[in-house]
Amino acid sequence: DYANRVPVIQGAKYDVSIAPTKDDQDSWYMHLTIKTITKGDEGDYYCHAENNFGNDTQPVSVRIRNIPSINNVTQCCIEQNVSSSCQDACSFFLDIDAVIDKPECINDFHKLMKCAADGSDHRSCCAHNGVERLCLDWCRGEPLYTPDSKVCLLSHTKRIMSCFREGRDRLPGPPVNVRIEKLDSTSVVVRWDPPQKNPHTVEMYRVFWRQYGVRIPPLKNDSRATSLRITGLKEGVTYECVVKAGNTRGTSVLTDPVKFVMDDKYTVILPATSNDHSQGLMIVGVMLMLVVVVAMVTAAVWLVRTKVLLGRKSSGGVAFENPSYLREVNMDHIQISHSDVPPVVQNGIGNSTTSHAGWKHEPLHVPSQTEVAPSLYEELKLGQDGAGFKRLKP
């Protein structure tokens, strides 16, 4: 061969077959089957034919494409405790039309949206398609803490689902197995593994970290690799870190936070459920306060009954039945301080949430409403804030 092309040899790796066409007895089909294809089999293959009247060669290009992982919507619906009457939507790809007219499924819609989003943040597409700001959390699988959720259901469900379908094979899922490795007393390396969903679409990773419980914007940096070095940390301070994957079309949702404490000898990794632990401590505190109140009431009853048994109460005494006395230990007047709990912000708007993954509602994605309301799509377009990302505002 003048082009030094290597012929394909019939054997265990390659199978070549020739068969006549059905419509023309003078035409033939040639089939080449490559068994157990690998990256090394990529390239151009040439089909060559010749007879007494001439010859011809046609090239065929073979490229290996990574198949995106399949989202098991049914399993997700089971894990999210979607009611049985609403699981008609949990098909291979979530079929929202099957339940959109069922009033009993309204309370399950945020669960269905979480499964349909499949770990990706579709808010850029949603904003471009005219989805209102108050509905954008559905576009990343988060619940809506607003009385306007029915408006989102009626007005924007179709648009949101369209973005889910559009980004299904284009957006990556969140990175997995995030871990911390200590370098010295002020530095660590954050490592993670590529996402299970569409890992081939990742162009950049973004890492956020902050001092736990402090009301300041998190620090961030980008990395094309699956690790990032963080310096300037303080000894004895608790930090938390999250990671997301992205490309020019959008990003994944954030990973669960990993908490760690810098020590002079080692880095202590705290469980990601420390938020739940702090909530548990708050509950314990409330219960202790209730016990104290009950003890005070019991002591008051005992004192009054003791005075009654010892004799008639004096004219200056206070009867237990006196409502003004009971009012001193009325539970309605006991206030529980939440000053130590950091505020939870959702899309730049302060909303209360019971989610333990507070990062998902911190201002890591969309700026405050006063900054962006006139041009929401502009902040989600391509920008200078990180190569390979849509303009990710924390």
Describe the secondary structure blueprint for this structure.
Elements: E1 14-20, E2 28-34, E3 43-51, E4 54-62, H1 73-79, H2 109-117, E5 120-121, H3 123-128, H4 149-167, E6 176-184, E7 187-193, E8 204-211, E9 219-223, E10 227-230, E11 238-247, E12 250-252, E13 258-262, E14 267-270, H5 274-310, H6 323-326, E15 345-346, E16 349-350, H7 369-372, H8 376-380
Antiparallel strand pairs: 1-2, 3-4, 5-12, 6-7, 7-10, 8-9, 8-11, 11-12, 11-13, 13-14, 15-16
Domain Fibronectin type-III: 174-265
Protein name: Fibronectin type-III domain-containing protein
Keywords: Disulfide bond, Membrane, Repeat, Transmembrane, Transmembrane helix
Provide tags for this entry.
394 residues, alpha+beta, Immunoglobulin-like, seven-stranded antiparallel beta sheet, three-stranded antiparallel beta sheet, 8 helices, disordered C terminus
Describe this structure in words.
- The chain crosses the membrane at residues 281-304.
- Keywords: Disulfide bond, Membrane, Repeat, Transmembrane, Transmembrane helix.
- Residues 174-265 form the Fibronectin type-III domain.
- One of its GO terms (biological process) is cell differentiation.
- By secondary structure, the chain is of the alpha+beta class.
- Among the domains are: 14-62, no CATH class; 73-167, no CATH class; 176-273, Sandwich (Immunoglobulin-like).
- Helices cover 23% and strands 24% of the residues.
- It contains eight helices and 16 strands.
- It has helices spanning 73-79, 109-117, 123-128, 149-167, 274-310, 323-326, 369-372, 376-380; strands at 14-20, 28-34, 43-51, 54-62, 120-121, 176-184, 187-193, 204-211, 219-223, 227-230, 238-247, 250-252, 258-262, 267-270, 345-346, 349-350.
- The strands form five sheets. Strands 5, 8, 9, 11, 12, 13 and 14 form a seven-stranded antiparallel sheet that branches. It has a three-stranded antiparallel sheet with strand order 6-7-10, with no helix packed on it.
- Strand 13 (258-262) and strand 14 form a beta hairpin.
- The longest helix has 37 residues, at 274-310.
- The radius of gyration is 32 Å and the shape is elongated.
- The model is unreliable at 273-281, 312-358 and 360-394 (pLDDT under 50).
